[in-house]
Structure formats: C-alpha cells, structure tokens
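Support request, please re-run this one:
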Amino acid sequence: MKRRTETDIPRQRRAKLFTFFRNVTVLPILVTIGAVSASAIVPVEVFTFTGVCSDCTGTGIGTLILLGDYELGTELSADDLYSFNYTSNLIPDLSIHNDPDEVLSGILPVGLGPADIFISGTNGSFTTSTDGTWSAFDPPADVGTDGIWSAGSVASTPEPSALPVIGICLASVAFFRRRRRKA
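Re-run finished. Output below.
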C-alpha cells in the first residue's frame, strides 16, 4: 500500500474539485438543451360546435382544433385536423386525435354558423349540415338541430418530443450512478 505524501493531497483535492465543477457545469447545460428541445409550439385554432339534441338531453358540444394555417372559407382536409372531441349525455367522449383513419372534409364559413362538415376516425364520426342538422355516431348515435360553429381562439399547443427527455433522464441516471460508485 502506497503512503500519501504532502504533494498527493493537493492533487487529489484538485481532481475532486475539477470533477465537481465539471459535473456542475455539464448537467445544467444538458438539462437546458433537453428542456428547450423537449417541446415545440404548434399554433392551432379552436372552433366550438353546439347543437340542440333531438334524441339526447340538452346540448351536444364539440371542439374542433385545427392547425393554425387553416383559413376560414377554404376546403378542410385531414392535414388540417389536430383533434376533435364531442360530448353529450349519450356519448360521453367521441375523440379523434392522431388517428390513421381520420377524415375531415367540408368548409367552415367565414362568418361561421351552420356548416357542411364531416369528421370521422376509428372511434366514430360527426356530421353537420348548413341547415343546422347534425349527427354523431359512436355508437350510439346522437342527432340534433340548430347546430352552430363558432370561433374559439388562436392558441399555441406544446408538442412534446420524447427523445430529448429520455436522453436527459438517462444522463441524470448515469451521472448519479457514477457519483455513487465513487463515494
């Protein structure tokens, strides 16, 4: 076993200080990079549907979220759809989001109000007409009258990216595991 000398002690302290400050510097940089790339902001436009139920009690309510580059009065397509949710007392949640079978067609009028819109996906479909009639099929089906589309707001929705978050977690685990082994 080698004996420590006076010159070894400052060298060991310097090595520990260097390791400490390196870790203190590198970890926040990694966290900052991961946090910045962990979410991208996606601008969206929110439209609300309300209609009087004929076969259900009360009102049928839908929320259509489109990507921000959609212009009222132009043809809708599945590429415009971010998500659609509908609810009533018969259908607690009809949700279409990231559905490979999703279909969106029709035109939201510039002044809004009644519109010919068709939305469908694996979970069901929703249709409105310019005469105000509408239907939702989950099953069961909802039908109604006085359907009106109104504009919500332009908003930004965070879109998480999983890879940077996973990278930060793995780097943190490796950092603390290495630190525990040295102790």
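The first strand starts at residue 39 and ends at 53. The domain at 40-159 is CATH 2.40.128 (Lipocalin).
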